[in-house]
Write a structure and sequence with these properties.
Chain lengths: 331, 465
Amino acid sequence: MTQGGPIEPGLYDPADFVPRRKAAAQGDALLPAEDGFVAAPRPSRWRRRFLWLLLACIAAYSAMQVAGAVAAAAAISPPLGWLSGALVLATIGAGTLWARGEAAELRRIARVEALQEEATRLLAAGGAGAAEPWFAEVARQLAATPGAGPGVARFQSMATDGYAAPDALALFEREALLDLDRAALAAVSRAARDCAIGTAASPLAALDAAIVVLRSLRMIREVAGCYGFRPGGFVALALMRRVLANAAGVAGADILGELTAEAIGGLGHKLAGTVSARLGVGAFAGMRVARLGIATMHACRPLPFLAQRPQVSRVVGHALGWRERDDAPGT
Amino acid sequence: MSAFRPPTLDELRRAASWLGGKAGEAWRAGGAALGRNHLRIGITGLSGAGKSVFTTALVHALRHGGAHPAAMPLLAGALGPRGWTATVERLEDLPPFPLARHVEGLTADPPRWPEPTRELCGLRLRLARRHRPGDEVVLDIVDYPGEWLLDLELLQLDYPAWSVAALARLGAEGAPCREAVDSWLARARDAASDARAAPGLVEAHGELLATCAAAGLRHLQPGRLVVPQAGAAEFAPAPLPADMAGGALHAAMAARFARYREEVVEPFYRAHFARLDRQVVLFDAIGALAAGEAVFADAGGALEATLASFRYRRIPLLDQLRRRIDRVLVLATKADHVTTTQYLNLRQLVAGRFSGTRWADAIDEDMLRFDVVAAVRATQDGWMRRDGAQRAAICGALKGTGEAARRLLVPSDVPPEPPAREAWPEGGFVYAAFAPPDLSGHAGKPFPNVNLDKALDLLLGDWLR
């Protein structure tokens, strides 16, 4: 037996065998390295340094102010000084913990893009078992999601390592993601309805904007929650940024779909024929929110839509009660 | 000034072929198979491809999968998430496929692989889908030896041309039984002017083909001498070299050849083959690789000859015969004999044979599909780890031993295309045959498998949806 030499084809003692399933479940180091993930281009170094220095200046200034205030309190009476000092420390501690949670969440959101790229690569040419690391990571991400457990467990009980990656991913979408999509689409549908009715009823243009922005932020947090992200304020903002960054592509696809819908007398006909101009404005607001919601789903979903993309017009139609059949919105 | 000019011959030809293509598409879109609730599929493959196991596992999975949709998830997509029920019936016009006996053997202790089917047999499945009550579909499954399909080639050739091709294959360089071929030829030459020697020579040729089959060769004709069909042997011809033309024996053989085509080959295709809607062709690429270069080349040729009968719009008579078949699924069987990391290569190795222009239209029109499958999964996939080195490996009981004697196999990497002569590995490709796993708990649910549900979805998915 050669020490550490390459293993040649042949029959061996089964004692040296490590089953794939067990190894994958243990997150074994034998799994293929996650190479091939493309990092986003980094912003300018000086911009980064400037921002950090600015932050440091503000922090130093506030620290001095706070220290001055604590010292002033201590000068009045020592117990008051201790008390205010403890209060400041507790505030800083809570803030740090919160920031850490948000940062972790932001990192997880940032991973979604890498997961999507990896999924696209696997869909193009993935052999059997090639998607195992992807599934392991997505299952970890979804572990915190209330509705995902049964679907993921169902998928894990069904999938064997013999499936080619595209088949396994399609199965994962069907078993594990469709429930989440349904919940996310319901959230989008609610937000679209609220915005449509809110803007139709609001007397001021500025109020329109406020309604849409606040309701959209809530919707983004809800949709993110559906896909396993803890919905925090910063997370919603970061998502909003990503959503806006790739909204152009999504919008292009949707415009095509809506032109078709109008051509065959779907939504456009309904709008023109049955709804007053004011409500039409509301419906368009709802449609914009729905588009944002679907873009958020694109940003949060670890897998591109395989079986069917949700359509803005169908979500809005459902939200406003225009659809006859009461099935899942948008699908 | 651009004057009108009559179209050139080439342009006309292109227009005609375009029109033909559109007509073919419309024919298929109109649905030879779709929109009907009755489908007849053929399952074939040359000896050793795993026909019996595949048919048994397929029927078993359709029969019991409805109660365990999670065991066949990709098929559950086509048959409905709420499951289905299936009943097995006899086919009126064919002997029954021995399903019960095969399932019993597989689930016995110790488990046994089903004995090979060497005759035409079949059964009927009635599928009732829970999400579409009252809309029952009927699936006829017909299992027949691939050797008989090989005889279809005879319809395209005359006797001298066939003789040359058949003898060239038997005597090819590296072919495993050239000596036996030479001694048979010597015997034929001795009787060149004796027409009455023909039956004896054909019998001897049958024995010769059996020897070749035992050595691993598969592209053997006439196929009914390899896998007998009742009543076929009395017409079967044997090939003779071209320099014997003019002799009485040659004339007698040519007459037998003509009768064989008319009374055995054609009636079979009219009665059975022409009634199939879809066809599964099984191919044991791993076994052929393991058997060495000559056998691998021969097996590839045999597969291509098998599929020649499905080639689209090429041969008028055959086109008429096989008009109904709108899909052929070629499956590389025994995928569990290599690691899962090799499946892509295995699929490519088989599909690569059909990448040429001759097959392009069939593949474009989705008529020809490929995948890998293990109808019953006999091994476990994983790694071998030793002294810090690791390599993908499988683990299972070798054929002929019990479950207690599990061995670890590091199989050779499957080449994505047939290796060139000098690239053929020294010592050959290392694979092994495995015994079936313990299936005692699977009498009422689908057997563990690789891609069986995917294969069924490729074959029937559009029809079932």
